[in-house]
């Protein structure tokens, strides 16, 4: 396939682009800067210049492709307002891409987060949350999946709280950044809450498998670690950085604070069984050993 990819230079996106190219696909990737364009060219992708807010550019990318993987999302989560703006921008982009694919039976794979279910790991059958700080993402993904009835092979890959590679990325990466800034490897809540995780190179395989063969309207979980205790994550970070490990108020983590404090394990049993996915790279706690002091 000739695949249009947005967000192709991020932790997940760069791995997805490499996975697609390795398995015989060609890639047209959105680039908003010269640096991103060069990275994509060096990886072997074709480049389409523009930003996620450029809906006409997105439509043009989808129109000339056999399928789409939508990964782009804003990078500023510092306030409730900037997070909401990024969610709205992503929703408009998904709507534009989906409209371009109507009636074509071409695939589009989008990304969202694993839901949280009190008392047990969430599964692929659980609905995405449509309220709360990130409820807008769930509504946008649901709208895209509904296009399955209108000739679009729309699917969603739900990602865990931490997508990591070489000790960087995801919620664990945000904990590391916060520790460097404050001098404390802090964690919210009592630290027993669990976060799921996956290595970016393993996650990329799920996106490729969904693009190639997943039925329209389906949802998948790219989860390798069902749930690592946040205190254990902070302990490894503290050890690598030589910092004390302490409980800190969830407000220290801005708009993500309430999410950070939640117990939110997730299962990928259905994805492994149906798509034949087998994670093969280090788990989160092992990978965090790559953090540089």
UniProtKB/TrEMBL annotation:
One of its GO terms (molecular function) is aldehyde dehydrogenase (NAD+) activity. InterPro entries: Epimerase_deHydtase (IPR001509), NAD(P)-bd_dom_sf (IPR036291), NAD(P)-dependent_oxidoreduct (IPR051783). It comes from the Bacteria. Residues 3-215 form the NAD-dependent epimerase/dehydratase domain. GO terms for cellular component: cytoplasm. Residues 113-137 are annotated as: Disordered. Gene3D superfamilies: NAD(P)-binding Rossmann-like Domain. This is 3-beta hydroxysteroid dehydrogenase. The lineage of its organism: Bacteria, Bacillati, Actinomycetota, Actinomycetes, Streptosporangiales.
